[in-house]
Amino acid sequence: MKILLSQVEGGFESKGSKFLSFLTPFSNFEALSLTLRTKHPKAVHFVSASRYFDEYYHIIESFDDDKEPRGSSGMPSLNVLRGEEIINVGVIIVRYFGGQLLGVGGLVRAYTAATQNAIKTAKTHNLLQDFVMSENVELEIPYNKLSLCEYEAQKRGLRVYKDEFLVQSVKIRIEGDRNILEKFLHQRCIEDLKIIH
Question: Residue ranges of the Impact N-terminal domain (predicted)?
């Protein structure tokens, strides 16, 4: 699976109708939707689709046809995100009507192409990267083991955060790839340490 590093744009035009696509990390999805409605007051539709992990790593998906014919816009856009295996992402396609009806088939093609074009832009600018399932663990560690623990964690690409300095120990949080973190927790440098969470 892939994640998007920053927002990108794409688009498509069919029989005078313009489809402006905005692909964004899911954390910015709702804010972007509000911004686009303000920036494009003459647009007739704001179609959207999203995919993200919840706190249990279940994939949550949504789409909205925004008054386009059912199945003609939101679901085809979501299917592109699924096909590209992009997660924690949303896409909003702003449509300006060009005067001619496109029919359901034409709309499916247009919304699919607009979403694909935004993804193509992301690929061109190397803004898609592999998704890493990240977790964190909290430890209480004596000061005399802190340096070794930090060294071993960072050597494996894990991030260490010092949360609280106590009298004889430090509460730290170690974050990173779930599999690497599990292996790290079985290393000698953290034997007999108190795992808080």
Answer: 15-119
- Between CA 44 and CA 73 the distance in angstroms is 13
- pLDDT, tens digit, for every residue of 149-181? 888 888 888 888 888 999 988 999 888 888 888
Query: CA dist 148 to 79, 81, 153, 168, 180, Å?
Result: 47, 42, 9, 16, 17
Radius of gyration of the chain (CA): 23
Domains of the chain, each with CATH number or no CATH: 2-130 (3.30.230.30), 134-195 (3.30.70.1150)
Kindly report the pTM of this predicted structure.
0.73
- Using one digit for the tens of pLDDT, what is the confidence trace for 113-146? 999 999 999 999 999 998 877 788 888 888 888 8
